[in-house]
Description:
The structure holds three protein chains of three kinds.
Chain A: E1 6-15, E2 21-31, E3 36-40, H1 47-55, E4 62-71, E5 74-75, H2 81-87, E6 92-95, H3 109-121, H4 125-138, H5 144-148, H6 157-169, E7 175-179, H7 187-204, E8 207-212, H8 215-221, E9 224-229, E10 232-238, H9 239-244, H10 249-257, H11 273-283
Chain B: E1 4-15, E2 29-40, E3 44-48, H1 55-62, E4 70-75, E5 78-79, H2 85-92, E6 95-98, H3 102-105, H4 112-122, H5 129-142, H6 159-172, E7 177-181, H7 189-206, E8 209-214, H8 217-223, E9 226-231, E10 234-240, H9 241-246, H10 251-259
Parallel strand pairs in B: 3-8, 3-9, 6-7, 7-8
Antiparallel strand pairs in B: 1-2, 1-4, 4-5, 9-10
Chain C: H1 4-8, H2 11-28, H3 30-33, H4 71-107, H5 109-123, H6 127-138, H7 142-169, H8 172-180, H9 184-220, H10 232-241, H11 247-274
Helix pairs in contact in C: 2-4, 2-11, 4-5, 4-7, 4-9, 4-11, 5-7, 6-7, 7-9, 8-9, 9-10, 9-11, 10-11
Amino acid sequence: MTQPLVAIEGLSAISTRDGGAPVLRDVSLTLEKGEVRGLVGESGAGKSTIAKALLGILPSTVKVTGGFIRFEGRDLLAMPRRELSDIMGRDITLIPQDPQTALNPARRIEAQLTDGLRLKLGMGKGQAHERALQLLDEVQIRNPKRVLAAYPHELSGGMRQRILIASAFALNPKLVVADEPTTALDVTVQKEILRLIRRMQEAHGTAVIFVTHDLGVVAKICDRVTLLYAGKVIEDGATADMLTQPKHIYTSALIAAGPRYDRPNAGLEPVPEAVFRQLRAEIGIAERRV
Amino acid sequence: MSDLLFEAKGVEVTYGMSKGLFGHGRPGVRVLHGVDLAIRRGETVGIVGESGSGKTTLGRALLKLVPVSGGTIRFDGQDITNLAPEAMRPLRRRMQMIFQDPMASLNPRHSIRQILTEPLFLHGLATDRRDAERQVRAILDRVSLPPVTLERAPHELSGGQRQRIGIARAVLMKPDFVLADEIVSGLDVSTQAQVLNLLKALSQEMGLSMAFISHDLSVIRAVCDRVTVMRFGEVVEEGPCETVFDAPQSPYTRLLLDAIPLPEIDDGWLTRPAPVLETAA
Amino acid sequence: MKTIKPLLREPRVVIAGGFLLLLLLIAIFAPYIAPKDPLEQDLMLGNMPPATSPGAEPGFYLGTDDLGRDVLSRVLYGSRIALTVAFVAASLSAIIGTLMGLAAGWYGGWADRIISRLVDIWMAFPPVLLSVLLVAVLGSGLHSVIAAIVIIDWTRFCRVVRAETMAQAQLDYVMAAETIGFSRSHILWREILPNVAPVLIALFSLEMGIAVIVEAILSFVGLSLSSDIPTWGGMIAQGRQMIHQGWWVFVFPLIALFATVLAFNQLGNGLRKALDPVMRR
Lengths: 290, 281, 281
């Protein structure tokens, strides 16, 4: 068997601010080339921490206490800064959550989109411009010339997210980390963006880590999915299996808790306290004092 | 007594309009273009739409929290469209609001006790401190929060707990009507279900009318009797939930429903072309 | 107790506050602490160096000035004027500026337009020049110095309070208070003001530092008090002329001035952080 693109092994981390509270507990998962992997969970599950660890942008308040993140066999956590910065932005890129703040409001789109092309690929101004036009065309922006000359505030949220996707795929990365990329968007725009990410991912053969709290989104875009709770992997497997035959009681409770427009009384079944008790017992979290 | 509690006809709201010193002010941006809405007693009406649809503005117009530039709003038979703020004040108790962001809607400098008891005294709903304390403790118990919560400040509570305080504050007033504006959009699914359950139970117990504003059609279906679908400041479709969700008439409603990802495998969903929608002129 | 605890956890508040408290005690008890009468001249003992230097006169720890007055006693007495001016001037500026700022920020409209224009015009004057001019017109003396500072610096409070009030007014808790039916003035005093207070308190501390400096400047140019009342600014002016004969007359009041202003600034910044209900844990 060939080696996986990403192999996270026994990754543990604590928060230095919360008196050393664990934020990741012995997390292991692998990502094959070209697959879309969902990281799903409620707030505090650690999904975003994993994404940040992959991008090498963990906040200073989070300290890794054990484990490895192997990218093509090389441990990202032990890598010298220089090598890491070669990989980040080139082999591993990010689609951020909030298209409103992810673009610099004072710079034109062209400057921001061509940064990576010029810095990492050493393209000249004209060449980068041509490539940028191509990229915008690829993410189905109709008048790329005008958009390149625009400032972020002149564009809609969906348009900005398209630009960020173009930017993420600009250097043909091997891994794109999408951190809740549709949470801030309207549903109709969300669908277009999901479709676009999937198409770009297939066209470029890129693997995607897709962080989300929405099991519906997972169902539509992820090949495999990892469900986390309090920094621990609860369930991991093919998306279809998890949704139709969940192995863990938390998984099925979570699916049942989500409301559905096609069922009149769905969504009013809170995850039972007993399930949380069981989870805490399994993970080894002390009972909360009220 | 009419069956209707709230009746809005042709409501228009224009933001940023100014009269100007010499007669020619700015015209402003119209965000509601003649909206009709009827809410019966004891009924929960969902107001759904994407950003820019005017759903939040409509909710605020009902409560006269934004100036209305056209149309009429009747509350319990009384025309409140042009009621002065002083004349509105006695009615305020009867129409309450629960906010999207419970952190922002609870004064960070006040204790939960202050937040819950002060309105009781304002409207003469409590005879003395003891009575207020008794009512507040009862409502806390109803929203499943321990009495120690009263000593806490808003930032010391979790998101779900804060939203329960928001609900408690609203129902303590014994209102006839509650406006709930995106109240679960900041919550996790497991917490969201608890809050929705609580709200639904309370509205049934108290015979409340509710306007439930949300961008999420699934949440609307879970709690509402009727639904109003909005787009660009106009009502696109209105009707009982079963009709609108099971047999939507408007292409826009169909587009919205189609865009919602359900947690089930549907390989064609992503690539299937969306229902065609004629763009608004 | 609940509000004091977090303050004590902020080192800047403890250190700077402790220093200022000490200074306050010195100012109050100066007659008991000061080793000599600050006004007592003895030309035989003029220009004596501080205690550690060769040729020092025992009992004059920080040396004497050209008239033989004890520098230590004069520095200690100088804190009385400095703190009086700081407290009175900052209080009056704060009261005037806050009232204007709250009115402009909350009621808006004409009140805001008039007050904002007034502030704009005020700000166009160079402050030090204006204060020198004012004291020249009002006549020198403590009252004039305080009046000059207040007349110039109320705008600082006004601008900050107005901006903060407007920002707070946008938050949902203000709309929540409105939906409960509280009056406009109740919302301003009970809901908004407590949230503006942290910024106000921090600014008040900074302003006391500024007032100390302005008083020193006015004393330096001889516009504050008659030269026989010890002030730091007056001493610095006097010491500057004889810096080659005795640096100590110049340096010690300067250190006192520097330390006091630094303490006020640090206290202000520390308070701002410690009083934030969300940031404190």
